[in-house]
Amino acid sequence: MAGLYDELLLLLHGVWSRRWVALGVAWGVCMLGWLGVALIPNSYQSKARVYVNTQSLLEDKVGITQVQSQQDLDRVRSTLASTENLEKVVRNTDLSQTVSSQRDIAAKITTLRENITVMAQADPSMIDITAASADSSLSDGANARISQQIVQKLIDIFQEENLSGDRNETKQSLAFLDQQIAARGKQLEAADQRRVEFAQRYVGLLPGAGSISQRMDAARQEINTIDSQLVQAQSALSAMNGQLAGTPQSLPGVGPSGGPSALGQAQANLAGMRARGWTANHPDVIAAQREVDALRKAGGGANGGGGSTPNPAYLSIRSMQAERAATVQALGTRKAQLQADLNTMMAKQVNEPGVASEQEKLDRDYEVLKTQYDKLLADREEIRLRGEVKTETGSVQFRVINPPSVPTAPAAPNRPLLLLGVLILGIGAGVGVAFAMGQLKGTFPTAARLERAIGLPVAGSISQTISAAQVAIDKQRMKWFAGASGGLAAVCLLLIVVEFVQRGMA
Quick check: 254 and 260 in contact, CB under 8 A? Predict the structure, then answer.
């Protein structure tokens, strides 16, 4: 630790012994640096904050969502710094007084593009527009005014891009769609005319509507449906036939007192059971059948008599049986007709494959054109409605939160900080030069360093003797050095004060 301390003292002694060299280098570096700082032109910056409202209840109802409006906003923001818009800024501000040719305008546009910033905040509805002006050929006041004019003109352009841009875009879109609709309409009429001419040439060859494949598919589907209905109708008819076979057509005789005989009564009960759907294995049906058989063997019962009456149950079942039979017949007839048509179409498809293929192609072309035509009509109506909504309600509403103002102080450079930085750099350069000179010159400040350098023991050293006159001279030189060092700091402080005074005057 002691060795390091001694080495540090030796280094400081070497620098101190060359302090005038260090001070001269510091003065030279500071003067050059301060001159460079003075030559840097002031950059004046103006800033404005704009609130953009992209929410609209009516626009949401017609399909103009906030996301779409935000996309429009991003598009305008990205094109705000386009060459066309920046040329408007140059021609409508005081920058026009500094240009005399198209080349000058192009140079100003390049400079503006580097000095303009359009940035969205965390809230996408808030947008900051910043512009800077640092033209060395203009005064500080002129640069300050131009920066404010640039921001104001950008705000005006921003509004124009949204208010008038939407109307122009809507008009252009509607005009384009009108052209496309007219072209598609002519193509659709031509396709329909070809279909009519084809139908006139081959009338009766391919009956029905739609292509032959579509009609064949429809016929097969209807046949499948009729088959299912026919199975159900035949099952119902078989049930009616079974009931009808087990039901007598008439009821035998009535008794002397006008009531039914015992045999007739038993047969009526049995017929009623069968009419209700009871089978021959039902216990009540078996008992009723035994009673009828017994009465028949006994000769019709004690109260038997002649004559008979129609059986109402038989007549009812007979009527339902006729209805079921008619349904089965109708379904069979319809199936036969469809099958015949299907066979005819299959035969036509085999015998005339070119006709069927041509018809399918004409129908397909017509459907494609009609779909495109209908979609263009729907798109045109949607764009027209959206355009009216944007025109009436405004797609984007602006409110300037912080209007651009004329800056009173330059935004760059930060001259006080640069002046201090140059001072520190000059002092460091001076110390560095003095240290380097001490390392390059072959002197030995102590006897121990001389021993290490030559590798031989040193017998002794002689101390420096300073006279009173030399002490007075050293004191006078120290005062000069302190004055020169203080003057360097004073010049830096003076330059900083001048900078603040100029800012206040601006």
Answer: yes
Residue partners of 69: CB distance under 8 A and separation at least 6:
54, 55, 56, 59, 395, 396
460: nearest Cα among 470, 450, 469, 447 = 447
CA distances from 251 to 260, 264, 293, 306, 320 (A): 9, 6, 15, 11, 20
The span from the CA of 65 to the CA of 69, in Å, is 6
Selection from 241, 232, 264 nearest residue 318 by Cα: 241
How many Cβ atoms sit within 10 Å of the Cβ of residue 209?
8
Q: Dihedrals φ, ψ of 208, to 5°?
A: 100, 180
Instruction: List C-alpha distances in Å: 336 to 238, 311, 362, 383.
Output: 22, 38, 31, 54
Chain centroid to CA 298: 99
Amino acid at 397: Q
CA distance 326 to 464: 148
496-505 residues labelled b (16+ CB within 10 A) or e (exposed) = beebeeeeee
Q: Residue 290 has which token pair?
A: 């035994």
Report how far apart the first and last C-alpha atoms of the chain are (Å, whole number): 57
Where are the extended beta strands (E) located within 189-337? 250-252, 308-310
Phi and psi based region of residue 50 (left: phi greater than 0; alpha: psi -120 to 50; beta: remaining): beta
Cα distance between residue 487 and residue 503, in whole Å: 24
Task: Give the Cα separation of 59 and 71 in Å (integer).
Answer: 14
Query: How long is the chain?
Result: 506
pLDDT tens-place values along the chain, 506 residues long = 555 766 677 667 667 878 888 889 999 999 999 999 888 888 888 888 887 765 543 344 334 444 444 555 566 566 677 888 888 888 888 888 888 888 888 888 888 888 888 777 766 677 888 888 888 777 778 888 888 888 888 888 877 766 555 556 667 777 888 888 888 888 888 888 887 776 666 544 444 555 566 667 777 888 889 888 888 888 888 888 887 777 777 665 544 444 456 677 777 778 777 777 777 787 777 888 887 787 777 654 444 444 456 667 777 787 788 888 888 888 888 888 888 877 876 776 665 566 666 767 777 888 888 888 888 888 888 777 766 655 554 445 667 888 888 887 777 788 889 999 999 999 999 988 888 887 776 566 666 666 676 777 777 677 767 778 887 887 888 899 899 889 999 999 999 898 888 776 65
The pTM is what? 0.44
Q: Give all strands (DSSP E) within 370-487, no chain letters.
A: 397-402
3-state helix, strand, coil in the chain (%, to 5): 70, 10, 20
Q: Give me 169's structure tokens.
A: 């875009």
Q: Report which of 501, 500, 412 is spatially closest to residue 133, judged by C-alpha positions.
A: 412
- Number of helices followed by number of strands (H, E) in the chain: 15, 6
- Phi, psi of 161, deg, nearest 5: -60, -30
Closest by CA to 252, choosing from 265, 239, 270, is 265
